[in-house]
Write a structure and sequence with these properties.
Helices cover about 35% and strands about 20% of the residues.
């Protein structure tokens, strides 16, 4: 692997983004030293900071500048931190919003599926809101369709519509269109069955709302057709509202969970709390173009700049990048082990600390990054 250089487009974004992505770069530097490769990281703008910068430059405000998109397309992988914050929440209809940058880069890179592994660390079982026995055997891979559904459908807002207000008065009417093509469903469901066939339990649960939505009926029909091609995989359907309950009541039943965009967005955040903190869940967005890796949490503007954010999800995003973009499984395994060993030895950031955490084992953002690098170098 000597002399290999990987070009990474870094997108720190907003809030705690710059702080946590700096820890990911530390980890990448350590991996490069150990494995004889170079990670050439170049920062670009996305989200709220991109809106501010383009507006200040006198250009049309945008959450995804053209130069960012071109840099992403020219890179071997994209590593993103977080976008958004209350500063931009007041945008008027039609104005640029930070989240549009994330949606747009996924769409333009052709990233049509998102992976969110949900792992339970023994050292953090007490941090979960569920009883420890509920977490026995939990190892979930959530596969979410990423570029279809209501997030990417037509959006309409009309003011002063007769009868849209109370008691027949004029009011505001809004409509969001949810649509799917069969191929958009098939490529994601097929990926989920392929993944399940390589996992120990060989199980896929397809989540939909087929009792109400026509798009979900197409989803279920497609899932059943593909399931017939994988006799070694146990396949079943689950309505999304039941899934919300089952993830809390019996999370151990899930292996690979596959679902459409909106349902996946909500269910994956719910599942993340099984781990005790959103700061522990990484994700990978894959498809036709350059893959994108990011933590599943938001920009946490309330703690931005305080040096206390948990960088583990961002660092675990690097683990996924090593696996899916660079095929460096040995390095990925070693990084995953370093994170586990750090936690097993009692090191904590504030969000995952409890009364039993020793005072000298409480770390800030940079301290946790340094500690994971230290353990990684030990091997």
């Amino acid at each position: 692997m000597a002399d290999t250089t990987y070009k990474i487009c870094l997108l720190p974004g907003d809030g705690i983004g710059p702080e946590i992505i700096a820890e990911a770069v530390k980890v990448l530097d350590a991996i490069g030293q150990e494995y004889g490769c170079t990670f050439d990281c170049e920062e670009h703008l996305i989200g709220g900071c991109a809106i501010d910068a383009t507006r200040a430059a006198g250009a049309n405000p945008t959450a995804l500048p053209d130069e960012t998109l071109e840099a992403a397309k020219a890179s071997d992988a994209v590593l993103l931190a977080a976008v958004g914050g209350p500063k931009w929440d007041g945008a008027a209809p039609g104005e640029a919003r930070p989240e549009q940058g994330l949606l747009a880069i996924r769409k333009n890179l052709g990233l049509y599926l998102n992976l969110r592994p949900v792992r339970i660390y023994d050292a953090l079982r007490d941090a979960s809101p569920l009883r420890p026995e509920k977490l026995e055997g939990v190892d979930i891979l959530i596969v979410r369709e990423l570029t279809g559904g209501i997030y990417f459908g037509a959006h309409e807002r009309t003011e002063n519509v007769e009868g849209a207000g109370m008691n027949g008065a004029k009011g505001t009417f809004c409509r969001d269109l949810m649509d799917y093509n069969e191929y958009e469903i098939e490529r994601v469901v097929r990926w989920a069955f392929d993944a399940a066939s390589r996992r120990p339990r060989h199980r896929v649960i397809s989540v939909d709302k087929a009792n109400v939505l026509e798009t979900s009926r197409l989803w279920r029909e497609t899932a059943h057709r593909i399931a017939a091609e994988y006799p070694q995989v146990e396949a079943s359907d689950m309505l999304v509202d039941n899934c919300a309950m089952q993830l809390v009541y019996n999370p151990g039943q899930f292996d690979v969970l596959v679902t459409e965009n909106t349902f996946g967005d909500i269910r994956s955040d719910e599942a993340s709390m099984l781990t005790g903190s959103l700061g522990m869940l990484a994700s990978a967005s894959l498809g036709d173009g350059t893959a994108l890796y990011e933590p599943s949490h938001g920009s946490a503007p309330d703690i931005a700049g305080k040096g206390i954010a948990n960088p583990i999800a961002q660092i675990l995003s690097v683990e996924l990048m090593l696996r899916y973009s660079f095929k460096m499984d040995e390095a990925a395994d070693r990084l995953a082990k370093a994170v586990k060993d750090v936690l097993d030895d009692g090191w904590r950031t504030g969000d995952i600390a409890d009364a039993s955490t020793a005072a000298d084992h409480k770390l800030g953002t940079s301290g946790m990054g340094d500690k994971i690098v230290e353990y990684f170098k030990r091997g």
